Amino acid sequence: MPGSVKLRSIKKFGQENNAYEFNDEGQNGEYMTMASSKDSKKAGQKKEQPAIRVGFFQLFRFASCREVLMMVAGSFCAVLHGSAQPLMLLVFGMLTDTFIEYDMELQELLNPDKHCMNNTIQYRNLTAEENAELNMTKACGILDIEYEMTNFAYYYVGIGAAVFILGYFQISLWVTAAARQIQIIRRMYFRKVMRMEIGWFDCNSVGELNTRMSDDINKINDAIADQVGIFIQRFTTFACGFLMGFVKGWKLTLVIIAVSPLIGVGAALMALFVAKLTGQELQAYAKAGAVADEVLSSIRTVAAFGGETKEVERYDRNLISAQRWGIRKGLIMGFFTGYMWFIIFLCYALAFWYGSSLVLDTQEYSPGTLLQVFFGVLIAALNLGQASPCLEAFASGRGAATIIFETIDREPEIDCMSDAGYKLDRVKGDIEFHNVTFHYPSRPEVKILEQLSLQVTSGETTAFVGPSGAGKSTAVQLIQRFYDPKEGMVTLDGHDIRGLNIQWLRSLIGIVEQEPVLFATTIAENIRYGRPAVSSDDIIKAAKEANAYNFIMDLPQKFDTLVGEGGGQMSGGQKQRIAIARALVRNPRILLLDMATSALDNESEAVVQEALDKVRMGRTTISIAHRLSTIKNADVIVGFEHGRAVERGKHEELLERKGVYFTLVTLQSQGDKALNEKARKMAEGENANKTDEDAESRSLIRAGSYRASLRASIRQRTKSQLSSVIPESSVAIVGELGPRSYSQSHSPRGDKAADPEEDEEEVVEPAPVARILKYNAPEWPYMVFGSIGAAVNGGVNPVYSLLFSQILATFTMPDPVEQRNAINGICLFFVLVGLTSFFTQMLQGYAFSKSGELLTRRLRRLGFRAMLGQEIGWFDDHRNSPGALTTRLATDASQVQGATGSQIGMIVNSLTNIGVAVIISFYFSWKLTLVILCFLPFLALSGGFQAKMLTGFAKQDKQAMEAAGQISGEALNNIRTIAGLGKERSFMEMYEAQLEGPYRAALNKANVYGACYGFAQCIVFMANSASYRFGGYLVRQEGLHFSMVFRVISAIVTSGTALGRASSYTPDYAKAKISAARFFQLLDRIPTISVYSSQGQTWSDFRGELQFLDCKFTYPTRPDIQVLNGLRVSVRPGQTLAFVGSSGCGKSTSIQLLERFYDPDHGTVLVDGHDSTKVNVSFLRSKIGIVSQEPILFDCSIADNIRYGDNQRDIGMNDIIAAAKKAQLHDFVMGLPEKYKTNVGAQGSQLSRGQKQRIAIARAIIRDPKILLLDEATSALDTESEKTVQEALDKAREGRTCIVIAHRLSTIQNSDIIAVMSRGYVIEQGNHEQLMAKKGAYYKLVTTGAPIS
């Protein structure tokens, strides 16, 4: 299905799609076509649709009139606000002209021959008539500069005040309107999701729905809130700026516009190159990541063959190319940034050169006009650039809205909230299936029920039995109408249930599931969920009927005890009984028991079973179960197979039929008999142990995870006891039929309970920067040069303000020739500054990317080395799964760059910028500088605030949504239970109540945010008004040259924005420090079994004598399951020891202790009489060769895989061939086209099992180990390859100490010692003959001819 690739991309949002990965095809298609499954033609076209199917204005479809008014008013304010900046330029132009005029007057009066008379400048020694003839009409003395400046200051303050008010309204109106709409969208979405039929949930993972509720709706919020206002404002500024340029001076505007494509092209090329190079870099890193993933996934193999250093080298080799691309990226970015600055400075030069000629030569413009035009175009261009992030927000909002709105518009196929349908007056409770065919919507290719027909008579108990996947639970779900059958119908008292009212139908049904779901509230409330208006007496009565009353009354808070998240504080039996009470409180006509007792231990099962037998009277009961005890006394037993009911009748009748039921029963009773035998045998030894455990399972309030693993261990034990006695072939069937709880719920239950406690990331102290820099020390030359470049770049901005004021000064020069030269000089200087900027930007980009990439590579390498050096137990922790570790290597290491590298560049840049600006300003006019510096903190604040605004206030919103998120999470995770109880409405109400808080918070935010925004925007106007007014005073009273006023103001204002920019980098910086801290935590962790240390004993005459003395061991991640329980066994050099026993009895564990993957908790493992914990790890491992059941090969050639056996020396081809011959591998390899150079594929996927196994044997042989460990080395093979491999192994065993774990007799018979293990210790040992004579467990295994497991 080629379409599925596209669909994946649409589902980028909630990236927890793993719920799907395993059904290859159907699902992906299903996901998008769910909505139109009624009309498959539509579905076909739907796949080709784009990811965004919502127009921008459709985002506002939930706005009421009031919101529309708010948004219109907000937009109006935004338009006015946008025109404020160009308006300010008009004032600025007039202000400049005033200053220049005043200065010209002063220049004239500098001439000693002239003086001011009757407000005109006249020659002193001439009469009035002569002056008139000379055209001396230039006014003087009229211009009161201070008075003019006061006026301009008032203009500025007026504009500033308007901006503050407009900014406030623009933001707060938009944000308020958005908050209301978002609340509506959340409400509608949650309502609709809760109404969806269960089939829809099968196709949408809960994780993803939760993500949609939080992140995606936040994305819509970003798209319809303040960003719209800001976009309108910026766009208006852009339009007004250009308009002003064209109106005031079209010639200059056209000249400036002509240059701008160069900048555009530069930006586009830069984006293109950076994207390309980032792609290359990621690809190169992906190779290294694949190496890391491969190595971490097969860490045991790496450790066993001592390949750590080799792997670190291999990883490092792959990092080099990633580093190269990263450096290139830095260089290119530096190049293009430099290029853009260069063009910008050229543009300045051109504009001022051409503009000044228009002012002086043709006198078309006044100097003020020149500035208005120039800055008008500049501001327009800047604002256009700043408007683009808003477009991004709009696009992602539309993308997010696509799926959310489609869900809101989708009509559920089975609508649980609808009032349609009949309600019968009296219900008897006869249920019948008529030729029902059904498949789950998420897996349309698997037919679950096929033409199922069966009757359930009212008042009787009907038991459904059959192997897993036969459709028993599905039939029950159809009775609840979670799904509708594709063909046929289900009837209740003769009425098709599709015609009945859903809520009413479900209120008749009580259901107790295998894994009952409790909600995170009190016991009483949980029972009350069964029926809303139920009295306390009814609750107590139901609890008594369910055998729950006594244990509840023993709890300190009785019925008000909280059951914890998902009922985690209760044991399985207690949860089960509360669930039964909840079902009984409904007083149901129909009781559905889906494996209600399977997950319990025997004791609680008896209690729960008793409760169930009590309540079945007089109700139609359907019970699904696997345990004989549960089924025997049912009125009717129905046997299921492949989605059909193949037999029905009473217990005795079905036994005679010898069908499905018969196989189930015979298997179980056999197993039970054997178990009882064994239990009696072990009772003596285990007695003390056992009572403990029961007491523990009774005592109640324990942490959830402990309880879960206890249950898991009880289950594990039942499983292993069964399998140790029942022959292999039959165990498989029991696995099929046998309590589902064994195989499946073992892991999820354990994990689920253990998760919440461990999932919280450990909080780490941010790392000190000094330590990060220490790792970067070797790159100091790069960092020095980079910093120099950055410093020069920082100085460029203030230099620009120097040049700019210098140009203004030239306009008042009296001598035209001198004027021209000065202007040309300044323009040339602009070009020079541009060139300098170009080179220093490149230097800064290259130097810092080089030092940053080298640091990243160094950290990745160190991190990877540290990971490989940890003991194996560390990898068992789910936080250290290969996936998590590879991500940590990928992201943390590159985030650390945020604290060094380019980050230092930014900081140096900003600091020099501010420094140079302040120095220049103080030098030219310290008084004015002090006045402006008062505004600097505010300018910096507003800069920082702008940066913060762009990132948005997402974090606060997220926290406000957490409570609502918990409710939605609980509701969606347990949707089946909620639907079964008909509780959708109450969850909707709870959710909506929780939305009030975030909504109020959003309204508050609107005001604060609006005020801040208005303030940030208006502060510039205020600063200007004060500084120009004071500048006027200085010019008049202290004879300051007017160009200095401009010089000082523009220098400080540009540096203020630089300060703001610098403050916006802090988030990266903080992130970097945290990442670094996580990294250092890994580097500083001291493994309990260290591979890299050279300490520990070594000796030259290694013989290979092994003794296990009273070893006890539990895995660190499951401390409550005792795996080895006093293992005692010894092997002399050259002997072969075989371990046999059921799975889970500790055979493989003993091998892992020998390899020192773990150390025993108690007791010792002696190697040649030395305590293994004191032996050097790599020395010990170098003497051991291992061949495991599923050998792990690396993705390289066959020769390299064999070479891996010994990483201490260089191995020639002859050795490899010799080893391959011993392993019966050589002939097969020579038959391959590339012989030993053949690549085996990822994890050896190109080879068959037998071939992989033989490569693994060759790998073990080339080590020339003294000890050979064979962990079920032949169990996975067919007979043919087994023979070859077995021969190879027999050859390999000669003269070595050998430990074999095997299930096939042929493999074990000729061992020197056979040890039969159970529950972590040896029950009998000896050679084949001795054990046969004992007639114990081994004898039984051999005579039944069973594979030993």
TrEMBL record:
It comes from Coilia grayii (Gray's grenadier anchovy). It is a multi-pass membrane protein. Keywords: ATP-binding, Cell membrane, Endosome, Glycoprotein, Membrane, Nucleotide-binding, Phosphoprotein, Repeat, Translocase, Transmembrane, Transmembrane helix, Transport, Ubl conjugation. It is found in: Apical cell membrane; Recycling endosome membrane. This is Bile salt export pump. Its main location: membrane. The chain crosses the membrane at residues 68-95, 153-179, 228-247, 253-275, 331-353, 780-803, 823-848, 904-924, 930-951. SMART domains: AAA. One of its GO terms (cellular component) is recycling endosome membrane.
